[in-house]
Fold these 2 entries.
Entry 1:
Amino acid sequence: MLKRGNFTSYFVIFLVISIALFGISKTGVLNPVTSFFQGGFVPLQAGIYGSFSKIANFSQSSDIKLLKEENINLSQKIVNENNILQDNKALRDQFETLNPRSANLIPAQIVGAPGFLPGISTPETLIIGKGEADGVKVGQAVVYKDNLVGQISKTSSFVSEVNLVSNSSSSFTAETLQTQSLGVVKGQGGGQLILDNVLLSETLEKGDIVLTKGDVSQNGLGIPQNLVVGRINSVSKNPSELFQKAEIKSFLDFTNLTEVFIVANP
């Protein structure tokens, strides 16, 4: 058996050699032969790292190691149980929502938000963990409870991209709940929405709810009617213009969503 003192000495020698080789490689002297020797140095570096780990843990008793392992397993169990509880709550809340019917929904976890930086920018698109293999198609609506989140814009076998309602490419017909005024919801980017193309003869009121009018194609793809878009925050009406418009605020905080639902059959 290798004594601890001898083991430490060999480790120090290998460590010095490794540092020396690393320093020489930074000077560029070894560039012509780097690719040739790289495969040989990787096992050596892995061995040194493994040896260092062994020395670092040499003084730890088996009881301490076991306790650490149990703590890691326990923390993972807590995380898993918490994820299950959140998923079950999201499913229960959605299935208690009458519009759209739960039988027509495909639950999907949010796995990404390209370009989103907390505190700096807002999401424009979401990546969800369901794709063509799950029956997801471009054009399908995405909801949370009875609120419209956006539409499927791209699909692959196992993931899909969702354009949020506030995305600048988003546009669909809508009407207000109280006054039944018709218009077109247009995403402005940065989480902003407007209800545009509303005739001056129509009535827009601050605080009124905006609902989807329904934009479903013959093949069943599109946005169903009576989904909640948001609430009117302000109205802009100029008698010299042909249309009036209103600023809308969604009830959803897209940055806090973890699961959404795809409307498979409106």
Entry 2:
Amino acid sequence: MILAPESVSKFAGLLADTSRAAICIALLDGRAWTASELAAFAGIARPTASSHLNQLVDAGLLTELRQGRHRYVRLASTELAELIEHVATIAGQPAAARSLRSVGVAADLAQARTCYDHLAGALGVRLFDAMEAAGLLCQAGGLTVTAAGRSWFAELAGPAALHSGSRPLVRACLDWTERRTHLAGALGASLYQQLVARGWVLPRPGSRAVRVTADGELALATLLGVRLAEPHEARLARA
């Protein structure tokens, strides 16, 4: 395949605008957003947000969903979400937080968050490391899921989880805060869905951040030997 410089330049130009970049970052949570919601997130007027959304939809970065009179948009693919995370990694650390609230939000995101439809942050990296150590994943010659890994995922999420269609079963995604790999692909998405469905991980309202419940801490320690920095009971006693 021949790469066209014009296409690369056009794509980079779309993300070069701060407001459009903010919109794409907001959509990394995997949800569909309205123009009003994205305008508030980016700190711009709604007509300005609509103009940016039209450009992103026309370029194929976003897909449009309509429900009645309401218009929603979301990122066009998981690959695009991972690319944005990679760009954030290469670009460097974000600007320093300016308030206690923003410090807390940044800490929550760094600890555990979603990258579109899979887990990222320190938790995502720990899970990846644990799965590799347990022989469920192998990085020799490119990331693959082992026979033991297939059995493990089938037991956790059912055999259907191993049928990914055209989507890669597993993909190594470079985490922008940890600068190490977390698990993407169909099994990365399935793992996150299962952790939420079992009540082991809960999304934080209005944020990409997630938190691990007490049951989740015990389950992750049992399944993969993953332990958080401080036991849940100790945190409760300290609080």
